[in-house]
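DM between two lab members

TW: hey, do you still have the PMT family glycosyltransferase, 4-amino-4-deoxy-L-arabinose transferase entry open?
JB: yeah, one sec
JB: this one, 644 aa:
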Amino acid sequence: MSSYLQPEPTAPESAAPEPRWRQWLASEAACSARELIVLCVTAALLLFYGLVPLRIGHATISAPKIGLVGADEPRYAQIASEMLEEHSEICHTLHARVIPHSLRVADLKASMKCAEAGMITPILYGHPWLEKPALYYWRTMSFYKEFGKSDWTARLSSATGAFALVFLIFLHMRRFRPGGHLDAALITASSVAIIAFARGASTDMQLAAPFCIGMLGWYAWYETGKKFWLFDLYFFGGIATLAKGPVAIFLSLSIIVLFVGLRREWQVLRRMIWLPGIALFLLISLPWFIAVQLRNPTFYKFFLFEQNLQRFATDRYQHHQTPFYYLIVLLLALMPWTVLALRALWDSIDIARAEWRVRHKPARYLGHSRAGDAFPEFLVLWAIFPVIFFSFSGSKLPGYILPAIPPITILTGDYLARIRRNGLPKWLLIAHGATCGILTFVLLLCPQYMVYQQIVPPPGTLFSAFAIATACGAGIVLLTQRLGLKWIRPLTLAPIFILLFFLMHQNGWLLDQNYSARPMARQIAAAAPEVKLLETYHIRRDTDYGLCFYRNQPLRHYLQEESATEKQSVITGIPNEEHILVIRTQDEGALTRLLPRRTYKQMFVNGWQELAVYRVAAAVVAAPAVHVENHKGSPAAKRRALRR
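TW: and the structure you got?
JB:
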């Protein structure tokens, strides 16, 4: 009874309403805005820092300190440059622009000719170069026209393609798999393969980005049945075909057929045959292939059989590797997320196997037409098929399996979202920290190796790198345990940003000196600006092509070289004109044999690449003997006789 005599609790005083800005910060819209800002800023730093020049006042924030490297980068950049030159020259001759001056028939015809000028046949050193379709060249031409011809503008096509891929992964995952969308996008952007190929003037990212976007669109259609998403497959599939040819069609169809075959949903293949989509695909990809064939009758034979079938079946282009080559490439390409990515892949394989077993017991469907979530199964097939397929290729390059990286990084982001409440197993977290430490250790020693060319650096440098790498790995493990799994992404990204600054800003000049022809081309231009002709003798292909790009001239060799079979229109022979000669330091003894009765002088030695640069004087051509008749008369008559 006493309980009834106690006074009733008084209601608390009404709290003051929170300000609107606090309410907005706690809203879903504010969360989405924050995620979008984090995505754009982080992806831009990962993909564009050290690539695009950026200055604020007198402070240099980002500078392109690394010139074009390898043989492909300067070659593709030069092709885009020559195509743009032809386009500009023809348009100038026609006094026309792509947008017509008026609607008169003459102006419309002139604009059409201007639009197709330099856009059909890729040109290298004035001759057709038909190894790859034209997508990369078109995009690079547009960047050249907007920002000028340079090595960093030649790389913008890949960087912008990678950024679009990361952004659309974020949007797709937020729409269909919310929770891991930001992790999936930023794990993709921070993987070694994506960072590296986003900074390359090559066709690999031109294929991988639209191919992956199209595959995500196909699965969105499979899950929702809405034709809007099927549009992505045909549109981006057409763009991917313009990047590298029929390999895009083959990969996408193989993965889709394998997926629907394992699920025994063959009617999906019939439903995905959408006439507007097929028309769109053909409209995007077919006109260029027809036009280039009409102008170059050998195109299909050379491109389809030699550049695709023979490249796959043989080692004609000397890119032979072991059968397990792509397993090693995959482990390195996924760094620093390799351990988590492999765990996520294995977890998704388990899910796919469980789904496969359930599909054989229809009673457990409980009325559903599908056996649960098919997304992990689709991503697993998408990730594994390119790796297995290209492992049988006679020619192997790392970029071939680039389309297999995004599905694994997406699985990794989704995996982290699913286990966020329970946390990572301790052994897995320690393994991830160790992987980040190893990556840090190796990259910190890269400049030391480039300077001294020693596999084992001095003990002091080795200890410093080991200490920093250990602190990095241990910090990721301890802070993740303390703060929670949601912090594993920012904690892993932090050393990546530091390493990017260390390599691109602090030591970019070392990479430039060791692997690019840009410093040597600049030094030659400063020492002998009036000498335009440059010849080479048995130097590396990458330096050869690089010098030609930076000096805007064709390949010129003293002698015919065996490797010249892969090169277009090589000009061979020792010219009589004054010229620059680039030769390996070990071959300098051959100069007396190569240049008898010629005067030459060493300009400088590039010790980084073991090359010597000479200035060779013009050949002295003996004047022919002149028979002078004994003319009687004035001196003018004698001079006329001499002129004869």
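TW: got it. The chain is about 60% helix and 5% strand. Residues 18 and 212 are 44 Å apart (CA to CA).
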